[in-house]
Design a protein that fits this description.
The protein is an alpha/beta fold. It has 6 helices and 8 strands.
Amino acid sequence: MAIQVTYRRTRRLSMRIVKNGDVHVSAPIGMPKKEVERFIEEHREWIAEARKKTYESQKRRADFYNQLPLKTREQADDALRRLKALIEPMVESHAKEMGVKPTIVYYKAMISRWGVCNVRNKSICFSAYLLLLPEWCVEHVVVHELCHLLEPSHNARFHALMDKFFPRWKEARKAAIKRVKIGACSESSEREQARPKVKETRQICKMEEDEDE
């Protein structure tokens, strides 16, 4: 386990457990080293528990994606066939309704995102792991990426478009995230300790969370 301390222009002393289990501490510039070390020592028990939960979360996440083997050419070809059969009709239907047309739709074994829209060339890439989600969750991802052809940013206009073309998008997004994290100890853990008012600094401990979009 590595502990990394970074001094920043901040008014609080904070700690987080990153995905690989390391501890990242942020401290206000000028704070004495002994005070930072005391903060770490006081939270040794929390660090151990948080690292355990982070490990379990990452293992469950890996187990989820491992349900779709893509190591051989045969496995990849089968996944591609199933993806096209599932997604292309959705793209055609919603693109027509929305008045957009992607230049190309292709697929990759992405685990960081469910889909990516390149607004410059109007291409859309979908994750092969969408095959592990319920169809209505997949459809939400399709609409999400098509909406980016109308609005590149995740701003109020984008959310309004999602409300219009797929009203249950918030539910679908939560269901997709839950599907990946089923059984995982991935809920955010957070603690706060008040520091002397004269310094107006807080201490915060938390774990990094995964996000799938």
